[in-house]
Design a protein that fits this description.
Rossmann fold; five-stranded parallel sheet; three-stranded antiparallel sheet; binds 2'-deoxycytidine-5'-monophosphate; 47% helix; 229 residues; alpha/beta
Length: 229
């Protein structure tokens, strides 16, 4: 817990494929903290828009969906992270590249971001939270005890995504993925509403040539040095 008795929040932001999800889940598990996958909220909204025939051009329609979306996150005993939309397990569908691109589109609207803000802040429960996304340190948890900005080269991030998708049986060409990663960076970094950028006090880590355990150890060391854990 932080000094004033509010739960400790660790914000991990960065572009797609930088390893935020993997690292955040491992760190949350090691610390016994809750975990917020904020990208999943935008992904679920994209899926929900398709299911309810709401155009991604309609900010009002998307806002209404964002406020009422029936979603649930579950971590099972074996550590598997499951995501439900209206009671249906959409854990696989939510992770596809197509859903990611849609999430990036719906995430551009200020009204949508506002509608999802409270839902995200409610994840900050004792003893603490590891929150991963694009604006965790800048907008959603500006008072977070630790802010990390994870990044890696576009090529490395596309190659990681390629491996991940192949493992899931989704066959997307690597050059096409490089272009998709670039397009998503461009949209996420240049939108007016809460663009992706490191928070002023964020510690930046370029993970291009680091293994998952090296990044995890680095984050845990920073926590120790800062006296957070
Ligand atoms: O982290 P991700 O790939 O699951 O995120 C999908 C998209 O959602 C991302 O391209 C932009 C949007 N997003 C956002 O705008 N703000 C966040 N905090 C998290 C994700």
């Amino acid at each position: 817990m932080a000094a004033n008795n509010t739960p400790t929040v660790i914000a991990i932001d960065g572009p797609s494929g930088a390893g935020k999800g993997t690292i955040s889940r491992i760190v949350a598990k090691k610390l016994g903290f809750h975990y917020l996958d904020s990208g999943a909220l935008y992904r679920l909204l994209g899926l929900s828009a398709v299911r309810h025939h709401v155009s991604t051009d309609s900010e009002q329609g998307l806002m209404a969906l964002a406020e009422h979306m029936d979603i649930r996150f579950e971590t099972s005993n074996n550590g598997a992270f499951k995501i439900y939309l209206e009671g249906e397990d959409v854990s696989r569908e939510v992770r596809t590249e197509k859903t990611g691109q849609m999430a990036s589109k719906v995430a551009q609207y200020p009204g949508v971001r506002l509608a999802l803000l409270k839902r995200q802040q409610m994840f900050a429960q004792a003893p603490g939270l590891v929150a991963d996304g694009r604006d965790m340190g800048t907008e959603v948890f500006p008072a977070a005890e630790l802010k990390i900005y994870l990044t890696a080269s576009v090529e490395e991030r596309a190659s990681r995504r390629h491996k991940e998708l192949l493992e899931k049986g989704e066959d997307v060409s690597l050059p096409a993925l490089v272009e998709q990663v670039r397009a998503r960076d461009e949209r996420d970094m240049n939108r007016d509403a809460s663009p992706l950028r490191p928070a002023d006090e964020a510690i930046e880590l370029d993970t291009s040539s680091m293994s998952i355990s090296e990044v995890t150890d680095t984050v845990l060391n920073i926590l120790t040095v800062k006296g957070i854990k």
